[in-house]
Structure formats: C-alpha cells, structure tokens
Design goal:
The complex is a heterodimer of chains A (265) and B (242).
Chain A: H1 2-35, H2 39-42, H3 44-54, H4 59-83, H5 90-128, H6 131-137, H7 142-180, H8 185-195, H9 198-224, H10 229-264
Chain B: E1 2-11, E2 14-24, E3 29-33, H1 40-47, E4 55-60, E5 63-64, H2 70-78, E6 80-83, H3 95-106, H4 111-124, H5 140-151, E7 158-162, H6 170-187, E8 190-195, H7 198-204, E9 207-212, E10 215-220, H8 231-238
Parallel strand pairs in B: 3-8, 3-9, 6-7, 7-8
Antiparallel strand pairs in B: 1-2, 1-4, 4-5, 9-10
Helix pairs in contact in B: 3-4, 3-5, 5-6
The chains are: A mainly alpha (265), B alpha/beta (242).
C-alpha cells in the first residue's frame, strides 16, 4: 500500500514538473513571438495569406453560428417575456446577450476550433518533417516566419469577424421576433439601440483581441512542440483545439467580470 | 573543422549521449555509424546548434558555439549545409523556390545572382527541367537531390547528411553516394554522414565513428572496423542489415 502511494506520488510529481516546464516553455515562446512582432512587415504576404484563411475562409461557419445565436435567444427569451406581456423588451435581451457575451463567445469557440486546429496540425506536420529545423538551420527564425503572421492576422481579423457576428445575430433576432412573436421590427430595433451603451460595446470588443492572441499562441505552441510522428500531429491538433477553447471560455468570463465591475465602480 | 568535446546530452532521465568527443576535418568525409535511435541525428543537430548539449563543448573552426544565440549561429550555419533524413522540403514551393528561399531570406543578393546560384545547383544535382515541379511530384531520389542542392546554396565548406540513402532504392542510393563523392572531389567539401547502412560507409567515408549506447566505441578508417573485437561491431559486421 505504502509502495503504491509512493508510486502515485512520484507520478504526480513528474506530471506537475511536466506541466510547470510546459508553462515556462509557453511563456518563453510567447515572449519570443512578441519580440519578433516587427517581422510582420517583412512577412506581410504571409500576414495577408493568414488573414485570408482566418477571415474569409472562417466567414461561412461564423455566419451560420451568428444566425442561430440571435434566433435562439428570441425563441428562449422572447416567449418568456411574451408571457409577462413584455415582448417589446425582446430586442434589449437579444442586444445585450449578443453584443456582450454570446457572439464573442460562440465566435471565439468557432475560431478556436478552426484556427486552433489549422495552426496546430500545420505546424505540427512541419515540426515532425523537420521543416522547422530546416528554417533554423538555414538562418530563418521560425517564430518570425510562421508564428508572427498568424498572430498578427488573427489580431487584425477577429474584431471585424465578431462585429459581423454581432450584426448578423441582431438581424436574425429581428426577423425571428417578427415571424415568431409578431413583434414589429421598428420596436425591436428601437429597444436594441436604446439599451446598448458604450460599455456594452467595450465588453464585447475587448474580447476578440485577447482571444486572437491566446488562440494563435496556444495553437502555434502546440504545433511547435509536436513529437511522435503522425500520431503526435493528431495529439497536437486535439491539444490546440481543447486548450484554445478552454482559454476562450475562461477569458470570456473574466473579461466580462473585470470590465463590468470596473465600469460599475 | 568541427569538434565535439566531451559532449553529453540528457532528455529528462534519459541519457542520449555520454562524453562524446569527435573531430571532423575539413575536406574529409566522416561517417557516424550506429543502430537506429542511438542519437546519431542528434550529433549533427548539435553541430548546427539546433540543440544545446547538457555538458561539453561544440567547436566550429576553433570557435566555441555551445552557447551561441540564434543570431550568432547564423554565420556558423552558413558554413554548413544540412540534408535532413526526410529532406524537409517545403511542400507548397517549387524546386526553384525551395532552393532560392533562403537566399532571398538571408542574403541581400541581386536577382540575377540568385538565379545563377539556383541554376548552378540544379545543374550539379541533375535536376534541370524540373525547376517548376513541386516536391511531391518527384521521386525519393530526386527529392534528396533537391535537398542536397538546397544545402549547397550558401556555398558551405561542410555538408551534413542525415541518413542520405535511407528509404531509397539501390539505383537512387548509388546516385546519391556518387553525388556525395563528387562534392568532395569536385568542390572539395567535407561531409558528415550519419547512417546505419554499412555499405554507405565503405562507399564514401574517409573515417568512421561508431556510436553505441550513447558513446563512441570506434573511431578510425572504415577498413579497421574488421579488426575491432567489440561485440557490437562484430555483430553489426556479420548482420549489416539489422
């Protein structure tokens, strides 16, 4: 029994060491990426390529998600409000939920899956085929060439993407409210405009840059630290998606909490 | 000249290299022979500064590069070309782009000079006519020749080969070994060849070091391998394909 406890303790200690080492390694990796940010000028073509992949190619799935966000809130909240004779308040509920929370969160999760998977698998495949070592061996900084364009492109694209999600979410809410609740669109939009304050936009738009940085760095790091052949690429891809999604969920809560607390004094 | 002095390398509890000392002379071909997974490829990555030893020193032309930063390592790495085991070519670039990429990245050369250098390597590697092909459309032997051409693009004085004939058919293997011999005889390049194939060693190497269980157990001309009484070497010589 004592030996078993010792074995568990040793294994736990090793795991803890491994996690600490990975965290430290990730921190250094992130610092190197920020220090190399000036390379985005040199690799502007790569930045444009990544912006296209991150922006244009992600658009269809984001728009589908945004359509369901607005519609679902109307279905769930609008009917509750209608029971109390307050269906004219539907626009307010949709506006606050979409702009502050649901749109950044859902879009963040979608981008974590899409961009996270792409970065982890692509860079992981480059790592196991020694292409990243080749870059270093021939004098090119792989972080400047591969990570910085992805980081900058995500940073530039996430805000317009999430703004578009907000808009599509609100529009889909308006149509569903008219169709399902027989709520006049003018009343809906009046309540939307009436309730939204600069603070709400600030909460909503503070999230995309943080998500962009977190998702890019986490997924690039998992790609760069791939080992173990093709099975390793699979594991890195899973890690890239899971850690990026967890980051989005956690940061979404903390950003809302901190900014709203600060604004409310 | 490249020199490893008492180099050891550990990954966690696993000791990959133990007090390895090795010298690679200019214009000579040195083979590093050993079974798979013994740390042979690690040695050439140490020579390029791609990984740092746990202890010991790596010297290139008598300069200790062990603790050099990436920026400090660049002029050192320009003296050495490397051909990776899987070639490490960029899939989305043509053969010409694969060869010219690092020239454009790192040297401020005029376009006509870049084109001339690429054509020179295409000709040397026998790749004329394949300039606009993607790596995936070439055979294994041709991809290896592209990797050799790319390794020569900075006009290095030493070239490092990681398993240059692994996975190739006998005809392609012979072509690659001939190319390695020409590098020495026509251009006067030194080379390090990491391999587990004994016939490659006898085909091209001036000297051979045998790596076994993290240490060098033999370091002499290939013919003297037959005089060795070490159990691993005698077993390797009697079953060279193992």
């Amino acid at each position: 029994m004592w030996k078993l406890a010792q074995a568990y303790s040793a294994s736990f200690e090793e795991k803890l060491k491994g996690i600490t080492f990975s965290m430290q390694d990730f921190l250094f990796f992130s610092l190197r990426a920020f220090r190399a940010i000036g390379a985005s000028k040199r690799y502007w073509r790569d930045v444009l390529d990544q912006a296209y992949i991150c922006g244009t190619e992600s658009l269809p799935i984001l728009l589908v998600s945004a359509l369901s966000i607005g519609s679902l809130i109307v279905i769930e909240v609008g009917h509750q409000l209608a029971e109390f004779g307050a269906k004219t308040m539907t626009g307010r509920s949709v506006a606050l939920s979409v702009v502050r929370e649901i749109s950044p969160l859902v879009a963040g999760l979608m981008l974590a899956a899409r961009i996270g998977a792409r970065n982890s698998s692509e860079l992981g495949a480059m790592q196991i085929s020694e292409q990243i070592d080749a870059l270093r061996a021939f004098g090119t900084d792989p972080i400047a060439k591969l990570v910085v364009p992805r980081l900058v492109a995500s940073f530039l694209m996430f805000i317009p993407l999430i703004a578009l999600c907000d808009l599509v979410g609100l529009i889909s809410g308006a149509y569903l409210a008219e169709w399902d609740l027989h709520l006049d669109r003018g009343i809906y939009w009046n309540s939307v405009i009436d309730i939204l304050r600069p603070m709400d936009w600030l909460v909503g738009f503070s999230k995309p840059p943080v998500f962009a940085i977190g998702i890019s760095l986490i997924s690039c790091y998992t790609g760069f630290s791939t080992t173990g052949g093709t099975a390793g690429v699979g594991k890195s891809t899973i890690k890239g998606i899971v850690y990026s999604s967890a980051f989005v969920l956690v940061m979404n809560f903390y950003l809302s909490k901190v900014i709203l607390d600060l604004m409310r004094g | 000249m490249i020199e490893l002095r008492n180099v050891s390398l550990r990954y966690g509890a696993r000791e990959i290299l133990k007090n390895v000392s090795l010298t690679i002379e200019d214009k000579k071909v040195k083979a590093i022979l050993g079974p798979s997974g013994v740390g042979k490829s690690t040695i050439i990555k140490l020579m390029l500064g791609l990984i740092k030893p746990t202890s010991g020193q790596v010297l290139v032309d008598d300069v200790d590069i062990t603790h050099f930063s990436e920026v400090e390592l660049f002029p050192i790495r320009q003296k050495m070309g490397i051909v990776f085991q899987g070639n490490a070519l960029f899939d989305s670039m043509t053969i010409t782009e694969n060869m010219s990429f690092f020239l454009r990245e790192n040297l401020n050369l005029p376009e006509n000079e870049i084109v001339a250098r690429v054509q020179e390597q295409m000709k040397f590697a026998g790749l004329e006519g394949f300039e606009n092909n993607l790596p995936d459309s070439l055979s294994g032997g041709m991809r290896k020749r592209v990797a050799i051409g790319r390794a020569l693009i900075f006009h290095p004085s030493m070239i490092l080969f990681d398993e240059p004939t692994a996975g190739l058919d006998p005809v392609s293997s012979k072509k690659i070994l001939d190319l390695i011999k020409r590098l020495q005889s026509e251009i006067g390049l030194g080379a390090v060849i990491v391999t587990h194939i004994l016939s490659d060693v006898f085909a091209v190497a001036d000297s051979v070091a045998v790596l076994y269980q993290g240490g060098i157990i033999f370091n002499d001309v290939p013919q003297k391998l037959y005089d060795s009484t070490h159990s691993f070497i005698t077993s390797f010589l009697s079953n060279p394909e193992d």
